[in-house]
Every structure is written in structure tokens, then in C-alpha cells.
Design a protein that fits this description.
By secondary structure, this protein is α+β, with helices and mostly antiparallel strands. 14% of the residues lie in helices and 28% in strands.
């Protein structure tokens, strides 16, 4: 098997490594009495640096690592790794820390100049996904959640008819409920998000961009869906009666998208005392 690329590695969230692995009883358990291979990286394709006999204690076991293919590894001191299923998969081990990655420069908002006499209309929503689930325990990151959507857009986004894959420059017409047309052009995609602009024929008005981005929260242990839209007001958005309805509708629809991303990535596990509590929480933007 080929070595997993570095960018595919996802670390399970948790506290700092403990030096007291011996007290936790971490031992080699190969199930068949054979030796266990110790590798230089958490991959079966990584070089073998040592072997350990069945039953050997691992006082230098530090924490657990999970790769993108959901394989768990026990990290030993000196950046050595042994498959966690060969150590009894001791879940009492803390999880290796993973710093939140910096936001991509591609995610920066870009202005759209208003034409003479136009007013701008803007909204910005943020949703905490999986209030009781640390995504890193499942190998879910902003990059993996975004890739799931961009690689199967019709199934994973809220509206269909843009095909399975999208990219910067692609044009399509989203299938909104009711008699509404929503032709769009994808301006750009990046590892943690995507952005499209409305085209002529859209009831909401042309030249309005909507940017979607998956982000870590400040603690680096939950995902956030950030939705930001801005552009010229159309007659529909300018009318006094439509403004509150449009604000309610957009908030509701992007909350639905946040719910869908949460469920598709299995982030709605809750402890018994939180059963019935919402998995998605709107945040102040």
C-alpha cells in the first residue's frame, strides 16, 4: 500500500499527551502472538523502524492519530507509530493536538462595485456544526467537508442542477423551490470554500456574490459554516414588504444547508443528556 500523503493526515482532537501511558495499560496486542511493526509515520507504507513483541508494554505511548482513511494509530515518543488496533485501541489515550490551519487567502471577501444609483444589500450568517461532536475524532476537517460538497454538488448542496462537480467559471441554474430562477456563475473554489455570483434573470438581482466557507472555530474543535452575500439590491430586495421575508428566508435556507453538512459528515452525535438538543447553532456574525 502506498504511503498516505501528508495532507491526508487528520489528528484526533484532545488534550496534551500524557507521560503516564504505563498506568493506562497500553500494551502490544497482535491477537495472533506475532510481532507488531513500528513505523516512521502513520501509514502502512511508511518505513519500518522497529518491531515489538506481543504483550510489550508501551510506556511512551503519547496519543491517538486518525488518518483520512479512518485508520487509527498510536503515536509513540520520537515520532514513531504503531497501528492502534495492535495496542488494544486504548481510547483512554489522549488525542494528538492539531492546530487549526490558517485561512486561505482565497477566502477573503472581494468587493463588487455598485453601478450609479444602486444600493447594496448584504447578509452574513455563521453556524456551528455538530455542537456536541469534535469532527477530528471522525477525521472531518474544513477541507474534507468542502471536498465532499464540491465533488458531488448536486447531492451535497441545498439545490440541484449544477451537476456533480463545480469549478471556477462554471455556469448553471440552481433549481430553487417555486417559480424562481437562479442562474449563477462560480467565481472560484478553494480547499475550504466556494463562491458564485448571480447572473441576469435572477429575481434576487444580478451581480450578487455568495461565499460559503467551512472554518474551524477559535478553539479548533468544531466546524463553522460561514455564509456571506453582498451585491446590488434588486427591486425585490428593495421593496419594503420583501426585505424581512427575504432575511427570514435566507437565514432559514442556509440553516438547512448547515444541517445537511452536519448530517452528511456524521457530526450530530449527542450525549444522552443532550438528546433532542439542536446539532447546529446559529452564531452572531
Amino acid at each position: 500500500m502506498c504511503a498516505a500523503p501528508a495532507f491526508a493526515l487528520t489528528l484526533i482532537a484532545g488534550s496534551a499527551p500524557s507521560a503516564n501511558a504505563f498506568d493506562r495499560g497500553v500494551v502490544v496486542d497482535t491477537k495472533n502472538g506475532g510481532n507488531a511493526r513500528v513505523r516512521s509515520a502513520p501509514s502502512t507504507g511508511a518505513s519500518e523502524v522497529a518491531t515489538l513483541p506481543n504483550g510489550a508494554r508501551l510506556p511512551d505511548a503519547e496519543c491517538l492519530v486518525r488518518t483520512a482513511d479512518s485508520t487509527a494509530w498510536t503515536k509513540l515518543s520520537g515520532d514513531r507509530y504503531i497501528r492502534a488496533d495492535l495496542t488494544g485501541f486504548d481510547t483512554r489515550l489522549p488525542a494528538c493536538e492539531q492546530p487549526a490551519p490558517p485561512r486561505s487567502a482565497d477566502s477573503v471577501d472581494r468587493p463588487i462595485p455598485a453601478e450609479r444609483g444602486e444600493e447594496e444589500y448584504e447578509y452574513h450568517y455563521r453556524f456551528l456544526l455538530g455542537a456536541y461532536t469534535d469532527p477530528r475524532t471522525l477525521g472531518v476537517t474544513p477541507e474534507s467537508a468542502t471536498a465532499k460538497i464540491l465533488d458531488n454538488f448536486d447531492e451535497e448542496f441545498l439545490y440541484r442542477d449544477c451537476g456533480p462537480r463545480v469549478w471556477g467559471g462554471k455556469q448553471c441554474e440552481l433549481d430553487l423551490p417555486g417559480p424562481f430562477n437562479f442562474p449563477i456563475k462560480f467565481d472560484r473554489t478553494w480547499p475550504t470554500g466556494w463562491e458564485f455570483t448571480s447572473l441576469d434573470g435572477t429575481e434576487e438581482g444580478a451581480r450578487r456574490w455568495i461565499k460559503f466557507e467551512l472554518q474551524w472555530n477559535e478553539a479548533g474543535d468544531r466546524l463553522i459554516l460561514d455564509v456571506h452575500a453582498k451585491g446590488p439590491r434588486s427591486a425585490l430586495l428593495t421593496s419594503r414588504g420583501a426585505q424581512p421575508f427575504n432575511a427570514l428566508l435566507t437565514s432559514h435556507e442556509w440553516h438547512r444547508l448547515a444541517d445537511k453538512v452536519t448530517w452528511r459528515n456524521h457530526l450530530c452525535e449527542r450525549p444522552w443528556w443532550a438528546l433532542g438538543a439542536p446539532c447546529v447553532i446559529p452564531l452572531e456574525s
